[in-house]
Automatic annotation (TrEMBL), chains A, B:
<comment type="pathway">
    <text>Amino-acid biosynthesis; L-histidine biosynthesis; L-histidine from 5-phospho-alpha-D-ribose 1-diphosphate: step 3/9.</text>
</comment>
<feature type="binding site">
    <location>
        <position position="108"/>
    </location>
    <ligand>
        <name>Zn(2+)</name>
    </ligand>
</feature>
<keyword id="KW-0378">Hydrolase</keyword>
<feature type="binding site">
    <location>
        <position position="88"/>
    </location>
    <ligand>
        <name>Mg(2+)</name>
    </ligand>
</feature>
<feature type="binding site">
    <location>
        <position position="85"/>
    </location>
    <ligand>
        <name>Zn(2+)</name>
    </ligand>
</feature>
<comment type="similarity">
    <text>Belongs to the PRA-CH family.</text>
</comment>
<comment type="function">
    <text>Catalyzes the hydrolysis of the adenine ring of phosphoribosyl-AMP.</text>
</comment>
<keyword id="KW-0963">Cytoplasm</keyword>
<dbReference type="InterPro" id="IPR026660">
    <property type="entry name" value="PRA-CH"/>
</dbReference>
<dbReference type="InterPro" id="IPR038019">
    <property type="entry name" value="PRib_AMP_CycHydrolase_sf"/>
</dbReference>
<dbReference type="InterPro" id="IPR002496">
    <property type="entry name" value="PRib_AMP_CycHydrolase_dom"/>
</dbReference>
<feature type="binding site">
    <location>
        <position position="101"/>
    </location>
    <ligand>
        <name>Zn(2+)</name>
    </ligand>
</feature>
<dbReference type="GO" id="GO:0004635">
    <property type="term" value="F:phosphoribosyl-AMP cyclohydrolase activity"/>
</dbReference>
<feature type="binding site">
    <location>
        <position position="86"/>
    </location>
    <ligand>
        <name>Mg(2+)</name>
    </ligand>
</feature>
<keyword id="KW-0368">Histidine biosynthesis</keyword>
<dbReference type="Pfam" id="PF01502">
    <property type="entry name" value="PRA-CH"/>
</dbReference>
<keyword id="KW-0479">Metal-binding</keyword>
Length: 124, 124
């Protein structure tokens, strides 16, 4: 994350980063509106995403930039990027080629957790 | 986050938490499939969400649990909770009452960032 970035300073000024300089990036598929994955971006990853149209993340485990699809072929072509109200999360809308998840599933969120019957939640 | 939790140990074992014990929670509206917000959960917030059917988060700024809608009336009734492939993010599907965002907007992601023309991204 020592990379010097050309991210628009007006955008950079609105980001509220984690202590390691990142904002969360939620990835949603344009056509299906499925939420595909959660990744992380630093300023330079956001700059590359906005300017190349290819979703580019910061890998916390590998400590390097990661163009989605560069090895898998499962590219994400960026349709839109929105910043949330407090500047610490991005919503990336993409056209996804192939599976978004490294497991081969369409989305990373394929593991449903058991909900208790939520009668209490219906009262108001 | 010193609260003792009754979260199912089988679920707890699958969570990969930040150093402060949290997982990211992406909130999506059931009907519209709009992505509404990003919040954070510790084990107890997830336990409460799964068992009460009311979306409950951990506020990093206030350092307390936060039942969405408790003060605003803008409740989130939980339809489903899915864990992602690497255990560090949750997708919470909700029926949203009123606005999800504290600004009064339906979703927190109302601020579109400018995309460069992405001809480069169309090549493969």
């Amino acid at each position: 994350m020592a990379v010097k970035t050309e991210l628009d300073p007006a955008v950079a000024a609105r980001l509220k980063r984690t202590p390691d300089g990142l904002v969360a990036a939620i990835v949603q598929e344009h056509g299906t509106r499925d939420v595909l994955m959660l990744a992380w971006m630093d300023d330079e990853a956001l700059h590359r995403t906005l300017t190349t149209g290819r979703a580019t993340y910061w890998s916390r485990s590998r400590q390097e930039y990661w163009v989605k699809g560069a090895t898998s072929g499962h590219h994400q072509h960026v349709r839109g990027v929105a910043l949330d109200c407090d500047g610490d999360a991005l919503l990336i809308t993409v056209d996804q080629t192939g599976a978004a998840c490294h497991t081969g599933e369409h989305t990373c969120f394929f593991d449903d957790l058991p909900l208790a019957s939520n009668g209490e939640g219906e009262q108001s």
